[in-house]
Amino acid sequence: TDQFAGGGGVHASINCLNVMGNQAWVSGTITGKDFTGLDVLTTVVDNGTSNNDTPDQMSFSYIGTGIDCQAAPQFPLQLLDLTRGQVMVM
Q: What is the pTM of this model?
């Protein structure tokens, strides 16, 4: 589930996970309302577990068709620092 800052969000059934080092790309098919059936892709970066480490990061979710997380695309928007929560890429 990706919750939007202004409320709402999308839920997806995950069909792909691609891990390279401390970064992971996750994609799936959206279920629920509004964007049902479209593909969604996001990437996360695990920057450590200590409060002294750089915050973990996440991209905006990209919604479209024919998205392939195995291609590990670089997003046009910069990664955003998480203000809470913990990403664990293993």
A: 0.82
- d(C-alpha 9, C-alpha 40), whole Å: 12
Predicted local confidence at residue 77, as pLDDT: 63
Q: What is the token pair recorded at 25? A: 């790309």
Cα 87 to its chain centre, rounded Å, is 10
Hey, how many other C-beta atoms are within 10 angstroms of the C-beta on 19? 14
CA distance linking residue 54 with residue 77, whole number of Å = 19
- How many helices (H) and strands (E) in the chain? 0, 7
The Cα–Cα gap between 52 and 72 comes to: 28
